Amino acid sequence: MSVTEKILETERPKAELEWNVERIREDFPVLRQTVNGKPLVYLDNAASSQVPQIVIDRGSVYLEQEHSNIHRGVHYLSQKATTAYEGAREKVKRFINAREARECIFVRGTTEGINLVMYGYGRKSVGEGDEVIISAMEHHANIVPWQMLCEEKGARLRVIPMNDAGELLLDEYDALLNERTKIVAVAHISNSIGTINPIKEIIDSAHKYGVPVLVDGAQGIVHLPVDVQDLDCDFYAFSGHKMFAPTGSGVVYGKAELLEKMNPFQGGGDMIRTVTFEKTTYAGLPNKLEAGTPAIASQIGLGAAIDYLNGIGRERAVAYEQELLLYATERLSAIEGVRIIGTAREKASVLSFIVENVHPHDIGTILDQEGIAVRAGHHCAQPVMQRFKVPATARASFAFYNTKQEVDTLVRAIEKVIEVFS
Description:
CATH topology of the largest domain: Aspartate Aminotransferase, domain 2
Radius of gyration: 22 Å
Number of domains: 2
Oligomer: single chain
Strand content: 15-25%
CATH superfamily of the largest domain: Type I PLP-dependent aspartate aminotransferase-like (Major domain)
């Protein structure tokens, strides 16, 4: 049974499965506006999702009533802000089922999380002649740091290939693993083509060689339930701004025994135990890996976003997104001249496409005139574009507040694109 089928399958009564999308849309004030005189159709969620009112309000409360630096103050506001900030960490811990809150390191987003692991773990563990494995569908944030590491250490970057549907070839992945492999870094869900990777199987294979696995969870955390203990991943990085929280928020989860061995990514305040001119000793987790004043309001907002997601019912939200993706795939596939890039059996809410003889930037421009926001370009995944022999794609990415009517609007706008360029 596929991941999609498992998500959609449930024994609960049908009435409980109904998703009141109009009610959900009321929680997102940005969706009420018009663009170029047309109702906004926001289909760029893979880049950044929108923010519900509850998260906006929580940020305002912090700025109005709690604003202060955290951890180092004994006064009322500092203690109140610290409680809210560390409360958000506890919410993250429960949300991903980490063993301990100290395994959840606050970062600005997935990119910083991956770089933290590369710098703190990779630079200590990878040497000359060693190998790092990534996949052919990675975001640049999960390619460039490992290239930098390999160039520095004289190591080799190995790439798991994928087929024409956008699915990783696991037999070839298994063949890449060997005693020289020091880390595997793979996306949970592709940001550019929406493929859901069999991440647990990938992790199990690596662990047979004692190789740790970092999961780029920027899309996975949004569209799938994530249990890091069940996955048994060693690191899992994700961004708040893709899961209905403010920009500047994010997390890299790591097993405590690995995080404790890592060198700090940055030095400065709050990550130390003692400092003399002769020697510095570091604080324990998570402080050792969180130097300086963090994005306090953003991380508190991440905690509020988790509260929101827990409140609406994740299973129903994910099931609704899957239905929306299937509907959009059927509608776009029926348009002559449109080709969907990435047709994996297991996909999340990303639909990348091209229109024959029309550049994706032109598609995006015309769709914007119709009030539709999509992403046009290489989506920070140039190797994916090269694999499918296209310069770029237009990407419609869905959230649980989008509707089938918006998909219909998208289809009509694409037909207009074809008419304009015919």
